[in-house]
Structures are given as C-alpha cells and as structure tokens.
Specification:
Layout lengths: L2 H7 E5 L3 H24 L3 H22 L5 H25 L3 H24 L10 H26 L5 H22 L4 H24 L11 H18 L4 E3 L1 H4 L3
C-alpha cells in the first residue's frame, strides 16, 4: 500500500483496542468527578457547568475536524470534554428539569439512536475506526456526546435503584461489558452495534466509580476531594496515552491491501 493510500485508509479516531477501553473508562470516571467539581463543589450549577463544558467541547471538536491526522491528545481531550459535558447535561435533564432517571434515559437513548440513523442516512455507513471526513466526524462526536450523557443517567439510575449503591452498580456494568466482550469474541453480532453498546456502558461504569470516590460517606461514597480525584485521574490518563500504543484506526479492507 502506498503512503497516500495509507493516509486515506487511516482515520482520526484511534484503533479500538484494550488500551482504548482502559483509557475510556478512566476518562468517563474523570468526567464524573470533574463535572461534579464544577457544578457542585464550585456551586456553579448544572446549567452553567453544561455551558462551560459544551463550549470546550465545541472548540475541541472543531480542532479535531480541522486536524489532518490522528492526534492522541486532541482526541482524548475531546472525549474528556464530551464526558464532562455529558455529566452536567444528564444531571440537568434528570434533576433540574425533573424528568427523572427513567425519563432522561429514554430521551437520551432515543437521541443516540436518532443520531446513528441520521449518520447512516447522511454518510451511507457508520464507521468507528475510520472517521476521516468532516461529515462523519460531526456525527461521530454528536453520537459520542449523547452516549456519554445517556451513560451518566444510566449510572445514577442504577446506583439509586434497589439499594445497589455505587459499587453494586459498577459491578453490574462490568458484568454487562463482559457479556459484550463475549459476543464480540464468539458471535456474529454487528461490531458497530457492539462498539456503541460498550461505549455507552463504559460511561455508567465510570459514573458509578466516580460517584463512589467523591460522594459523602452517608451516601455510600468515600468522600474524597473531587478536585484531587480529578487531578489523579487526569494524570493517569496522560500517562496511559504516552505508554499505551496510540495509532489511528484503519478501514479493514484497505488496511489488508498490499
């Protein structure tokens, strides 16, 4: 394959590997603690927090779209922005608007499905590794933001249901992710469907772990400082981006062509 063909085949999203999912879970946990830091610890509220994080997200998505190739730190900064925005948006929808966790989860699931459907109609296919056109990138980041917001609502809903608590909720999502991994390894279920299911499920896992770290003791948490927890998680993410292999995803049919 020529250099030009390799460039065309490569996307601006990373290859979906085990390292991808490890960083994703840490990013979603960071999103929970950082989002709560702004909206709760700084007392700015969910609406102001959403405005702040959405502004940052729009700037980073624009940078991601304008980039000519895959940049790990730009990509993961955009993921972090989407998950922090998702935290405050979900909290605003479920608490401030008063529609509750069931209503918020149904609304957000509808938005995720609608985004994927519109993506398929506009582009003709839905790729997760190879995202290298502005139109596909716009749908990619819209779907990611909706899925991050849905995951937050699901995590909070599960933790508050039946006395499960944050660790109980986290365990449920770990088991569900294990089932998705088994389907990926031993079934013919669409890889695109499994990717988005896993992407959504890692968010409530991170939400439950993040809440366990920073919520008060009488609410089942460890009452750790939100800013400190966020700083530690951010440092871990940076280290893993540097240590774990970061390469752009490639269209499988193109990548296998010599």
């Amino acid at each position: 394959m020529t250099r030009a063909e390799l460039h065309e085949a490569a996307g601006k999203a990373p290859a979906v590997t085990l390292g991808f999912w490890i960083i994703k879970v840490l990013a979603t946990t960071f999103g929970e603690t950082a989002g709560d830091t702004v909206s709760m610890s700084l007392n700015l509220g969910y609406l102001v927090g959403t405005a702040i994080f959405l502004t940052v997200l729009l700037v980073l998505v624009t940078a991601q779209i304008l980039a000519k190739r895959f940049h790990p730190f730009v990509y993961w900064a955009t993921i972090v922005a989407s998950t922090t925005a998702g935290t405050t948006m979900a909290d605003y929808a479920t608490r401030s608007l008063g529609i509750g966790y069931p209503g918020g989860s149904i609304l957000l699931l509808t938005l995720v499905i609608a985004s994927l459907w519109a993506w398929r109609l506009a582009v003709g296919r839905i790729e997760t590794d190879t995202v290298n056109t502005p139109k596909a990138e716009v749908f990619y980041w819209i779907t990611i933001t909706f899925s991050q917001t849905l995951g937050t609502a699901l995590g909070d809903w599960t933790a508050g249901t039946g006395g499960l608590g944050y660790l109980g909720a986290a365990l449920i999502f770990v088991v569900m992710l294990g089932a998705v991994a088994a389907l990926y390894a031993w079934s013919g279920v669409s890889r695109i469907i499994l990717f988005w299911i896993a992407f959504i499920l890692t968010r409530p896992l991170g939400a439950a772990v993040g809440d366990f770290l920073d919520k008060p003791l009488d609410h089942g948490g460890l009452a750790l400082s939100r800013p400190v927890a966020s700083a530690v998680l951010a440092a871990a993410i940076v280290v893993l981006i540097l240590v774990l292999p970061q390469r752009p995803g490639q269209h499988p049919t193109r990548a296998s062509t010599s």
